[in-house]
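cron nightly-structures :: item 1 of 1
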Amino acid sequence: MSNVKVSRKEMEKIMEKKLQEVKDLEQREKDRREAVRQLSRVPGKCPVGKCTEIIFPSNLMMHMLHKHTHSVETTTSEVFEHEPLVVCFDPTGYEYGDNQCVASLMYGGVKNKVETLPGLSHLSIPNTALINDRRKFDNHLPIMMIACRSSWYAQLKDKQLERELVALNAKKSGIYVFWLVAPNTTRKLYYTLTVYDRHYLNSRSVVRTVRNYTHFQNPSDFLPHEDDYLVLRDSEVVEFLNFDRANSKLSGKHVKPSIPMEVIIYENPSKDPVRHCSQKELQEALQHVQELYFKESLPQIKGALKYSARGKLSIKRKPHSKTSTEAKLKSILSE
């Protein structure tokens, strides 16, 4: 009889524990829904420099897919939790202070787990105004990788002093700044950004959080106060590209000047180890970018075009800026 009583007490404790777990789960779900409702719906300017449109958070996906996915210089891809993606950065043609979109990404949570989509897991506001086949991104989070040519002096809090120093010594203080932006989220969203040369002999890597696209997007405004970005000096950019030049000479082919960059996005930095791309995966991604580059850059000629004719077609691009570093980039391209 006592054994029966003990088993009943244990059963009651188990039932109470299960009931409490259900209540806690319901409360967390309620809190997450409330957190989404509390997210600001205030619109912001598109972070791309030459785009002047003002966009609501729920419309950023539509705007990104419509305006910033058609350039050969922009990587467009669906990305998932802890899944590495390789993008290629071409530093030629960047004007000082002009933000450019390096990648347009659709973040879909954990791959093959619909319940982890940001719009369903209460990470972000669902997207609106998507039509046809783009409706599949209703609950994805739009993320843009932005790059900007700036100066070390942008880190100064005294902006008057910054302008004076840039005017005096801009050629020797050039940097490229990279960061990720998205609509505001209920929880922090992290990313690992790693810069490689083609042979894995040189690299830089940082772990950062995605910035709110409605905040300041001029490096001069946020560099003095934040650290959610990666900086490459002009000398580092030239060094990374020098590996491409050596590889181009050995192969006898003129390849697109680009620096491989690996992006890995995740919500919980301690949950799973970050898996980086293998050298084979990196090379395959770079080959794909080269093929796209040739396809987009070659002129449209009626009739058949033999492969041997490609060697006679110029694919040189002249940068707009006149800085000494970009002069070095021009010399790399011409060799």
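cron nightly-structures :: done
Helices lie at 2-38, 60-67, 159-169, 219-222, 234-251, 279-297, 324-334.
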